């Protein structure tokens, strides 16, 4: 198959036109399309990372909100534990009743002192120090009662404990507790 000079020119021009068409396609159509695709993918990746960070922040905010709700409920419950009136009027009878329920007949609570708390968040609360005297108690009963006391009174903490055996009745002990509790100022 022999090509004429005119056909060779047409074939050469067609090949040059085809190469030019491929060049134009890759340079002016596919190149910008690939660049815009790369830019779009980078924007998608950037937005996805921002979205993930926002989801984390929303999760943290939800946890913080739940913690705040729980703390508010706990604070309200603790405020309800403090009856109206001066603590010297209601705390000793409460302690006497508590120990009576624990089968300990004699228990006397007296105020040793009180002090304001130094933290700014707790400026509306006072720390009261009490001495609780139990002149005669069985060792096992008083141990269980002290544990129950700290569990029943969440704002009370036993700070000191003195136990002495009674010389006349060795099965009983004389117990003196020092306890501190937080009471809201009123």
Fold and architecture overview:
By secondary structure, the protein is α+β, with helices and mostly antiparallel strands. It folds into 2 domains: 1-80; 87-184, Ribosomal protein S6/Translation elongation factor EF1B (Alpha-Beta Plaits, 2-Layer Sandwich), CATH 3.30.70. Helix content is 56%, strand content 25%. The protein has a 4-stranded antiparallel β-sheet with strand order 1-2-4-3. The model has no long low-confidence stretch (mean pLDDT 89).
Short description:
This protein is an alpha+beta fold. It has helices spanning 5-80, 87-101, 139-152; strands spanning 108-116, 125-138, 156-165, 172-184. It is rod-shaped and about 140 Å long.
What is Rg? 42 Å
The low-confidence runs, each spanning 5 or more residues with pLDDT under 50, are none
Fold-level CATH name of the largest domain: Alpha-Beta Plaits
Q: Beta-strand level of the residues, as a percent range?
A: 15-25%
Q: In the residues, how many domains can be counted?
A: 2
Number of strands: 4
Question: Could you report the average pLDDT, rounded to the nearest whole number?
Answer: 89
Q: In angstroms, what separates the terminal alpha carbons?
A: 114 Å
CATH superfamily of the largest domain: Ribosomal protein S6/Translation elongation factor EF1B
Structural class: alpha+beta
Q: Secondary-structure element sequence?
A: HHEEHEE
Broad shape: rod-shaped
- Give the CATH class of the largest domain: Alpha Beta
Q: Share of helix among residues?
A: 55-70%
Main beta sheet strand tally, sense and closure: 4 strands, antiparallel
Architecture (CATH level 2) name of the largest domain: 2-Layer Sandwich
- Contiguous helical run count: 3
Which strand order do you get reading across the main beta sheet?
A: 1-2-4-3
């Amino acid at each position: 198959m022999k090509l004429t000079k005119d056909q060779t020119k047409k074939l050469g021009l067609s090949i040059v036109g085809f190469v030019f068409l491929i060049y134009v396609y890759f340079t002016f159509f596919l190149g910008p399309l690939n660049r815009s695709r790369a830019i779009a993918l980078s924007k998608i990746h950037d937005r996805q990372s921002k979205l993930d960070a926002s989801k984390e922040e929303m999760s943290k905010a939800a946890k913080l909100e739940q913690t705040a709700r729980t703390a508010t409920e706990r604070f309200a419950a603790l405020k309800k534990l403090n009856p109206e009136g001066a603590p010297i009027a209601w705390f000793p009878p409460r302690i006497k009743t508590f120990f009576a329920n624990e089968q300990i007949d004699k228990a006397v609570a007296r105020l040793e002192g009180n002090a304001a708390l130094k933290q700014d968040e707790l400026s509306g609360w006072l720390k009261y120090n009490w001495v609780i005297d139990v002149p005669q108690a069985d060792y096992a009963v008083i141990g269980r009662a002290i544990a129950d006391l700290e569990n029943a009174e969440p704002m009370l903490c036993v700070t000191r404990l003195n136990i002495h055996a009674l010389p006349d009745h060795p099965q009983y002990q004389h117990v003196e507790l020092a306890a501190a509790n937080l009471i809201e100022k009123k």
